[in-house]
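Run log // design_07
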């Protein structure tokens, strides 16, 4: 079980509700006489996981205690010792968040039993339903389990049995989750932070000898395990490690001939297609691997050598994009239990292969904190859990001095994957509701920073849909798709776009003809407010469906934008003046000593690069690539342009680091950087970067007509 992270939504926790029955109420001397636990998954109690065990305390059970929980001395004496049930207890916990009512008492008893019996007990991450109720309903006269159950409409069965109380606690927790969400606490870290503010309750528990349920030791242990990750899979793309060109054979080639070729070339697989050529559409191919060969020979003996490879090769070929990060390939191989993945280009051609052998040096499963879970998600909750792994990984990468631009590309890759999967789930839900399938081929686009590959840890949705042709009923179908897709993403942790840039809205979906007409209209407009949000379409990246549709409309937009000088100039007007981040004597200033780096750096540099890319017909997406293309064409002073690239990267790194810290602390992550948290050298570097950004208005004017 992968542990929950600081960013895991509380409605998606993998948790275990736990209770102990003991010989007394002094946690130092009390012995366990019964343990009960049940798993919680998202919004459900997994009844089939229920576990209960009487334990031999090896001491006399007071009659008063027996009167409460009903466990007699005779029953306890016949039960196993605590050390004998310890493995089963930890099998129930298994990295889950432990939920309990007054769980600090149970943790204290477990800690004492572990010490007494020389057993390992790493303190688990835990939440106390008593404290959670005090957060959302501080005016309740009584926060006992019975009172909360009555208030929340939860039935308690078998009160004062360990399992009965655990099940009641789990139900109370699930009923508290919507109230915590309504109070603005969405993540595990945010809830923990709210609990830490209950100082009187924490003091009371400490005075009673309980263990604090808000366990920073558990948090730091998980953070340390992520921090040790190998950064190679996050810094390199599949295209950099794949083998190419691939070996291809025709279907009538004998197995013997295929084996000879694999042996001669030292490869472990060959592809099969009618033409015998590479770089065709991946759907044309089957694959023959060493394992396929061994299985066939084992089953058929020497006669298998004369069989045509068409009889043995398998299809479809499982693939991955050449532009995907290596961590995605490792995760996909683990999920599918495959040792080979075909590598496809953006337009779906087979361009290479990556094998487990290629990734052996990177194949350390604990190091792959991001896996392929998004691709197998079946619900929005599954997507939320997958998405919650991202902040910790990004913070670790920044801590390992990985280029911030690379970290932002990883965030963007995850956003694209989330959007792609949300579209798939939305379409499947329409089929489940007995609606017709897609009325036309289509693609989903991710716009803005997600399209550019420059997303931060607090993105919102920017998406669009392009379909081949149709209107009326066709558009209605895609309106429903866009609505369901946005709802899934919102529930999974990528909130709705405040500016309405989502395919569920009519202006962000349409046929190719619609989109061409829309783009033509954009470039003819002359009022700046008419172009609100239009410019981010020029960052569009197709992520699902027929990707060539997205590429086609992207190229058309650049061609038309380039042809209209007035359009490019209008986009540049937003950069005519920039807010000044400097105080009177040259130091950095910010509201409450926090500076908005999106406002002062990320937006102006990205908008500058996009505007000039449109003006000079540079159909590239990332800010860095656009500015580098200007340099390659001799447009603008190389030194200043390189300074802007560096300023953009520095700002991304500062914002990502700050967002990661905020998320871990249970704060709402923003684009604001705490100037007080920066060292003198960091402030100096940031100041120099922002001074280079202040030159953008002049550069835009100078380079608009440069050649």
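design_07 sequence
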């Amino acid at each position: 079980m992968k542990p929950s992270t600081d960013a895991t939504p509380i409605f998606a926790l993998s948790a275990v509700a736990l209770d102990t029955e003991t010989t007394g109420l002094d946690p130092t001397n009390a012995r366990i006489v019964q343990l009960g636990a049940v798993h919680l998954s998202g919004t459900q109690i997994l009844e089939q996981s229920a576990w209960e065990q009487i334990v031999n305390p090896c001491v006399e059970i007071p009659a008063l205690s027996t009167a409460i929980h009903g466990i007699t001395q005779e029953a306890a004496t016949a039960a196993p010792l605590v050390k004998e049930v310890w493995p089963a207890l930890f099998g129930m916990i298994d990295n889950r968040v432990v939920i309990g009512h007054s769980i600090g008492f149970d943790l204290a008893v477990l800690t004492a039993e572990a010490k007494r019996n020389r057993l390992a007990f790493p303190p688990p991450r835990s939440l106390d339903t008593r404290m959670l109720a005090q957060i959302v309903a501080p005016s309740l006269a009584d926060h006992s389990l019975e009172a909360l159950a009555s208030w929340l409409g939860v039935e308690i069965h078998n009160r004062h049995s360990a399992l009965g109380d655990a099940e009641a606690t789990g139900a109370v927790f699930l009923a508290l989750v919507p109230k915590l969400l309504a109070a603005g606490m969405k993540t595990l870290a945010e809830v923990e932070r709210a609990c830490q503010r209950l100082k009187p309750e924490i003091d009371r528990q400490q005075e009673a000898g309980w263990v604090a349920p808000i366990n920073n030791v558990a948090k730091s242990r998980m953070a340390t395990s992520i921090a040790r990750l190998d950064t190679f899979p996050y810094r390199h793309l599949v295209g950099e490690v794949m083998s190419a060109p691939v070996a291809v054979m025709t279907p009538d080639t004998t197995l013997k001939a295929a084996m000879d070729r694999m042996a001669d070339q030292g490869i472990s697989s060959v592809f099969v297609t009618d033409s015998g050529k590479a770089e065709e559409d991946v759907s044309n191919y089957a694959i023959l691997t060493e394992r396929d060969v061994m299985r066939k020979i084992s089953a058929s003996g020497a006669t298998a050598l004369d069989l045509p490879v068409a009889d043995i090769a398998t299809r479809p070929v499982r693939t991955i994009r050449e532009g995907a990060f290596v961590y995605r390939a490792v995760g996909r191989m683990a999920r599918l239990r495959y040792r080979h993945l075909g590598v496809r280009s953006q337009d779906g051609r087979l361009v290479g292969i990556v094998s487990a052998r290629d990734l052996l040096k990177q194949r350390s499963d604990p190091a792959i904190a991001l896996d392929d879970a998004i691709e197998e998600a079946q619900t929005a909750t599954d997507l939320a859990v997958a998405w919650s792994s991202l902040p910790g990984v990004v913070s670790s990468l920044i801590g390992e001095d990985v280029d911030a631009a690379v970290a932002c590309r990883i965030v963007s890759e995850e956003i694209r994957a989330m959007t792609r999967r949300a579209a798939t789930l939305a379409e499947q839900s329409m089929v489940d509701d007995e609606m017709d399938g897609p009325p036309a081929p289509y693609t989903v686009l991710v716009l803005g920073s997600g399209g550019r590959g420059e997303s931060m840890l607090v993105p919102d949705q920017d998406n669009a849909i392009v379909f081949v042709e149709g209107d009326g009923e066709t558009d209605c179908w895609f309106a429903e798709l866009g609505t369901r897709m946005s709802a899934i993403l919102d529930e999974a942790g990528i909130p709705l776009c405040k500016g309405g840039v989502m395919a569920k809205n009519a202006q962000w979906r349409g046929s190719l003809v619609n989109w061409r007409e829309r783009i033509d209209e954009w470039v003819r407009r002359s009022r700046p407010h008419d172009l609100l949000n239009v410019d981010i379409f020029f960052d569009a990246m197709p992520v699902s469906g027929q990707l060539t549709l997205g590429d086609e409309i992207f190229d058309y937009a650049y061609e038309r934008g380039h042809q209209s000088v007035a359009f490019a100039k209008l986009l540049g007007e937003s950069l005519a003046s920039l807010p000044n981040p400097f105080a009177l004597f040259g130091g950095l200033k910010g509201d409450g000593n926090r500076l908005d780096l999106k406002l002062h750096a990320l937006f102006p540099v990205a908008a500058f690069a996009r505007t000039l890319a449109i003006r000079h017909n540079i159909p590239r997406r990332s800010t860095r690539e656009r500015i580098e293309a200007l340099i390659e064409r001799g447009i603008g002073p190389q030194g200043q342009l390189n300074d802007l690239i560096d300023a953009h990267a520095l700002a991304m790194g500062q914002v990502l680091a700050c967002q990661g810290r905020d998320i871990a602390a249970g704060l709402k992550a923003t684009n604001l950087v705490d100037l007080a948290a920066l060292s003198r050298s960091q402030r100096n570097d940031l100041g120099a970067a922002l001074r280079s950004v202040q030159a953008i208005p002049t550069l835009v004017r100078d380079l608009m007509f440069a050649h």
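Residues 640 and 692 are 7 Å apart (CA to CA).
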